[in-house]
């Protein structure tokens, strides 16, 4: 923890200096990361692991977001990133034993979720990230360089056509809300017949389009996903294109209010060479700080995986 604090304090003080000269704190974080990479600035530690570096940068970005320069963006918490990395290991165990897997995050933000997974599966991931926000993707790019994780980054609206080959796995903390570009939305099966389309529905459809047959998709979804006025269309779409593997309700204490609660939603793209799952895992994730409860929960996941 000491190295993480030292790196964070260095980034923090440097970012605050930039903030005083008419830049935002997050602009200062970006300038500091660039300075470290260019050799203009030296970190106060001799060496640091990829995880120590990622966590220190994450702390600085979190501080910047709390200062409201990016109020509509939320970073995926570490505990969730590690949990999803565990799920990836379970679902793609056979592929990981044979070599690399390809992962796409179509709404990567600063990349914390994707980088957490990449650090856990170090050297076994070929990753692609897409982000429309200019500042966030620059922060992701500099972070990737500093933690030495290779990644292809695309600065674009992920709901437009992508220059991406189909992947083994999609992971995404889904952006929730209405999608403003109605012309683009019309090209989707899940576009709303009346009014505006839900962006999170369109992201699910787009993600399936860029997933290999038999590939997996792990989404963080609003807990109310299947209670909306467009839920019936989503159900019909998923029944046609994917198998639902699991819905895991996340602990309430992870969220500020009930309306912000999320679940982990796991899909598998249909394949004629594969059979549908025998059982959908419906579960409630225990408090992640309770090690004993989480250990029992992991055993439950392993048993489900063996029966699947």
What does this structure look like?
There is one protein chain. The longest helix is centred in the N-terminal third of the chain and has 18 residues, at 2-19. The chain is globular and about 55 Å long. It has 308 residues and is of the alpha/beta class. Strands 3-2-1-4-5-7-6-8 form an eight-stranded mixed β-sheet, with helices on both faces. The protein contains eleven helices and eight strands. Helix content is 44%, strand content 18%. The chain has helices spanning 2-19, 25-38, 50-66, 78-91, 93-98, 112-120, 134-146, 182-185, 199-209, 231-241, 291-307; strands at residues 101-105, 125-131, 151-155, 167-173, 211-222, 242-249, 262-269, 281-284. It has two domains: 2-66; 78-307, Vaccinia Virus protein VP39 (Rossmann fold, 3-Layer(aba) Sandwich), CATH 3.40.50.150. Strand 2 (125-131), helix 7 (134-146) and strand 3 form a beta-alpha-beta unit.
Layout of strands and helices, then pairs:
Layout: H1 2-19, H2 25-38, H3 50-66, H4 78-91, H5 93-98, E1 101-105, H6 112-120, E2 125-131, H7 134-146, E3 151-155, E4 167-173, H8 182-185, H9 199-209, E5 211-222, H10 231-241, E6 242-249, E7 262-269, E8 281-284, H11 291-307
Parallel strand pairs: 1-2, 1-4, 2-3, 4-5, 6-8
Antiparallel strand pairs: 5-7, 6-7
Helix pairs in contact: 1-2, 1-3, 2-7, 3-6, 4-6
